[in-house]
Known about the structure:
By secondary structure, the chain is mainly β. The model is unreliable at 1-55 (pLDDT under 50). The strands form 6 sheets. The chain has a 26-stranded antiparallel sheet that branches. Strands 3, 5, 8, 9, 10, 11, 14, 15 and 16 form a 9-stranded mixed sheet that branches. The chain is globular. Helix content is 7%, strand content 51%.
Amino acid sequence: MTAPNPSAREIVGGTRSASAIARSRKTRSASAIARSRKTRSASAIARSRKNRPPLQKATIHRAALLLLLLLPVLAAGQPQQQKAAKAVLIDAPIHVDGLLDEPAWEQAPVLSDFLQKDPREGESATEQTEIRILYTKKSILFGIRCFDSEPARILATELRRDNEFTNDDSMSVILDTLHDRRSAFLFRTNPLGTRYDALVTDEGHIVDVNWDEIWYAAAKVTDTGWTVEIEIPFKALRITNEKEQTWGIDFERIIRRKSEFAYWNNYRRGFDFKQVSYAGVLAGLHDLSSGLTLRIKPFAKTALTQTSTIPSMKDETHSVSDVGLEDLKYRVTSDFTADFTLNTDFAEADVDTQVLNLTRFPVFFPEKREFFIEGGSIFDFGPGGGAASEFKFFFSRQIGLSADRQVIPIRWGSKFTGKSRGWTIGLLDAQTERFGLTPRRNFAVARLKKDVFSRSYIGGIFTSRDAAGGSSDPYNRSVGVDANFIFFRHLNISPILGSTFTPGKNKDQGAGRGRAVWDSDLIGAEVERMVVQRAVNPEMGWLLRRDFTKSKARFEIRPRPENKSIRQLFFRANVDYYTNQAGQLESRNQDLTFESLFQSGDRLFIRYSHLFDLIRKAFDIQNRLSVLPGSYTWDSTQIRFTISPNRQLSGDLGLRHQRGFYGGSNTEVSWTPIWKASRNLSVAPAYQYNRVRLPNGEFDSHIMNSQVNYAFNDRWLTSTTAQYNNAARVAVVNFRLNYIYRPNDHFFLIYNEARTLAGAPNTQSRNRSIIAKVTHSWDF
């Protein structure tokens, strides 16, 4: 049966009525539809596809072209409102005493109107702040008044340079002197005039706190608040040769007792103070001169060491005196600097923290040596940071330190670093002496980055380790490329791809990662895919494990309830999934986390984890117990309470219980208090207890990493560290006196003692050393 033709009344102007359409659909039988489908031959379908215009392909090409054209717009994000400041040139110098009593300060316009980021975004700061900016031919000066309605409650406890001031009120200045909206110099001080400085790279992705330069600050607490004067010589900065300059600039004020964070320009949540693309603008700078061309900083050291066996205490004493070149710094151009060190010594470096390693993986100890830390952020390459790193193609601790952290003498080292026209360049070369069976070696690394769009970059790295002739391990190389793209302000996409090259290996040496992160104040999300092949061997880098593929997913929501007690809540779900190259599950971590930030500044952290680990080869925990091969699944519950740093007694108190841990259990209690007894004295008696129970045995671990800091003033500083690890049977004491007799020049007196308590009494040992070291610099 066929459908009748519609009548003229059913078609008006080529439009069928609803009733006609309904009758037509109703009368069209299923058999007619089947015959219609059947009669449509394969050849007809083929002809249809062949004759179809290439609209789909053209559409894809147009969409790809449109996306490519829009990339700069997407990467730039929405425009940010920028406040403007002006610096005023003066002839007479300012005496930096924190009083703001020179008439010249009245010539400068006043900057104020600070806005809160926390606790109430966009509202005016609860206390007034006024800033004035002057400059001479050699330096820039800031005069700041921090009004306070309760000056008796101003917090000021820290006299040590480069402390984070987590317990203090503070005032910070960030300067983007190249105005590239990526890199900056950060200067911070507290009501005592204590100084903190750092070099900011990639908008805070890397912060080099160990960058130290000569600048001046002084502060005074008054009956209306506190005032501060800051002078920063241009020779401490990197500036262009342009006659008239424009810098990026912003200010941060922290009122610690209120947990209030206020900013001059970049006050929006979801953006950090170090993201200088959201800073304001400083104008009015003319005819600046950086001044510094050459700095020579030699050192002299005398060391007395004693080694003895307990209980005989028969000392073997050695006395060594040495001189060397700590740093020769030559500013090649206004953009690039060369550094050279000879017969390098790191006696003043902090000792490593004692840890209990409950895993089959090595422990990541951070770099603490000044030559490698200063400017070392340029060479950063690899996913993650700190202890979270799973691989890095360059890690400077591989130079001059053995696998068991023994010092290998460094003959010399050199660096060439800088940035110009959007290109960042870093070159490093170092030569080590022979050490035991390890031959003399040369370490070289080259790093290159190019700024793209407004806040993104692409880059590459090359590392090379060469040994002296005749070595069975003559060389090791690595090469990699990376990028970091920022879209829509909060979306960060960072791919990494690289390979190592080792004698005798010609395949499976690649590593790579793709990662996308959305990080706003309300929402956090992350997806990641990482692959490290089985023969990857970055001898100048860091590798946690080989032969794995990692898949990661994280989602976090961070609401801010209207509550008098709670400032922000955090709900987080995370999955880390590791397989080997054959696709077999190696490890799995599943986390659910709840965190609460209170208006007081206290924090509560609760996490539940479900974990899986496949052990193919037995490993020992602290040489006490063995974990046997097998598949292990366990649960972990962790609770941590952090006391607000605005209290005299702050720090963390934590509890973790792992049920089924490698077939047994582990209970951990940790306490890391910080007691600010006065502006001169602080005590941090950290303690960790672990109760480990496994099928083949058990042990209790006690680890202490306690530190006492006493500052006579901001020039005479002492630090005492006492460590005890009963699992490793080690006790360590380190005392350091640091006299800063002039800016950036130091006298150190250091006492070290380490005792090994393992084994029979006649095999236990004690090592002592007393070291005196002085540095002195000349600037030209």
